[in-house]
Amino acid sequence: xxxxxGTGSTAAFAVERxxxxxxxxxxxxxxxxxxxxxxETQAKGLGIPLCTLNEKSRLDVAIDGADAVDPNLxxxxxxxxxxxxxxxxxxxxxxxxxxxxxxxxxxxLGPSFAxxxxxxxxxxxxxxxxxxGLKEVAGCTATLRMGKVSTGAKKDGDDIxxxxxxxxxxxxxxxxxxxxxxxxxxxxxxxxPLRATRSFGHRIPRC
Length: 207
Fold this sequence. Notes:
This protein has 5 helices and 12 strands. With 207 residues, the chain is α/β, with parallel strands linked by helices.
């Protein structure tokens, strides 16, 4: 079984649990793909076998947290700065399990947590103006977070936190097709609830 390991405080509990079950012998014949350097370090410390998408392009399941979840099970992700890696890994999973607690449940996306848009450092001010000028985010504030993104490159990337947005996840394709950004933190296409403390499963759109 190939398992994707998410990034963040909630995902860290799942990584710890995988390590415990491997040690006890409850889990066997699995290999995991981490979505950040922090998760990779934690997994190695627990003796979890690891690989990358270069070795395994399809995953059986990916487990991660989220920054906000609305009643339609649309998510905001990427606040921890591992958005690009998370999306690359999780879209290749046959099943995605999202673990959240009650504090992440919101009536609408946006007011509780800004929408992350991961970009490249090159001409970042230009990119921020392009994002801020999109009609989909009219009336919102775009704030640049320098060097807060774990892209895995020699130099960290940047991201834009778009504050005040109340997005319909299907209306943000322009954030994907702008040439400079790497990825955005909005995901949709709900499926029935799956498992965990309060968890929801859905497929993340490939944008």
